[in-house]
Amino acid sequence: MAKHTAHPTPVQAVDLLVRTLGRHSTLSVRDERAFRKLHPRVSAATRDEDIVRQGDRPDVSVMVISGTLARYHTTGGGDRQYLSLHLAGDLPDLQSLFLGIMDHSLCALNDAQIALIRHTEILSLLKRTPSAAIALWRHTLMDAAIFRQGITRNSTRSAAGRVANLFCEQFTRARILGLASGWSCALPLSQTQIGQVVGLSIATVNRATQMLRNENCAHLRAGRLNILNWRRLSEQAGFEPVYLHEDLSGQS
Amino acid sequence: MAKHTAHPTPVQAVDLLVRTLGRHSTLSVRDERAFRKLHPRVSAATRDEDIVRQGDRPDVSVMVISGTLARYHTTGGGDRQYLSLHLAGDLPDLQSLFLGIMDHSLCALNDAQIALIRHTEILSLLKRTPSAAIALWRHTLMDAAIFRQGITRNSTRSAAGRVANLFCEQFTRARILGLASGWSCALPLSQTQIGQVVGLSIATVNRATQMLRNENCAHLRAGRLNILNWRRLSEQAGFEPVYLHEDLSGQS
DNA sequence: CGGCACGTTGAAGTGACTCAATTCGCGTGG
DNA sequence: CCACGCGAATTGAGTCACTTCAACGTGCCG
Question: Within this chain, do residues B133 and B162 fall inside the same structural domain, yes or no?
């Protein structure tokens, strides 16, 4: 298998981190040097593996190197509600640095590579290089904007609208990160899981995806999302991508 | 009118800020002094007034002094989706410090008093006293936890469950802040607005609140929420308050 | 070939929506 | 003090979107 590339090195991991943060924050040379002093532990996660669990008190934070991770709530009834998806460069549980106890879990949607950074290391980085904190803080703020959209998507839109909206968001995020190829990107979700993202039953998700496919909007197949007609899809979705802050301008 | 108390002073405003942040972060004497050097502009907002609008690029951030503010999305169809409610001490649009363009609006649910703090002032505070940033950062992280709950509430629960969950969250937050009196707290929402929080039509909200009232769980009247049976209500709600991080321990 | 996970389909049920009418609470002006 | 008006709450009837459940198809891997 050509896929079976070598484990990324810690150096490559921090490089990805610097590039990701640099996308929305301007890092000074000093900031960048500070980030490059981190010693992440690179690790692998297999499909469906929990990386952190609701109730845990992690002493590391995770960065995605490759693959897709997801955060989810487990409700009293045992149901799962996915909260957000995370691609290369994301720091899905950075908040555990300051919130202590996890209010949700983090799992891998497909086989993924991750970097684990000790909280103590991040904290001492923040102490030594305070301006670097802004970049990480901003990252968590962009996260929150995606949560807000999640509320609106799952509360105000029709079945097809929710699925279409999810497709739009995921494709746009992948594209911004350079992880899309043409009009296609990874979306390793079964229909059951899509239901657990957008709050619909599997039957309804099935009918919604079919509708999007039949109307030549988008086609999900084998963990890959193919956009057929962006215009029509984003219309269906009521997609307004301001919240993803694609533009790099106007940031400090 | 006894209500017509004098405008709070800027000093009282920063005092509230320090107390609020001190609830979850331990502020050093230096941090505290830095916060007390801020010069907020105290202002009033009237019921239904927008304080910041979707698309704006504010150069100040808002702190709630009294009353209740709310953040909301306006969808393409013109519908409103409330995202979160904010009580005294909250900084509902702190994220505008780093995100530039607002992806949502902020409005007053009732007559409220607010403090406006210039971004430039906050930024220079962060530069001079980096450790103070942690406290503000943590505040935004707790915000995000509430958004996550919003997704799960509006995606997985029944009508009555959603309303009950909202009641539980709001009462608990008010209680933590010392804004509850006994089993009662402010909740200045019409049934229409409750629908715009939890993603239900007004008719369904009406039936759900009636059910909660008839089962002696909770009673909403004239902008005040009265908890009649906490046990039963939180059961209905599937309420798991970990995410509010009520406990002060275990934080740096 | 057999098993398994996932996708697809149909039919029946139901919770929530829409819409329109009615009632309630309350402040205002006669 | 009462009539009025207005916003909010309540109610009922009809409809619809989504759920549930059970069956069946399909592709893939051992």
Answer: no
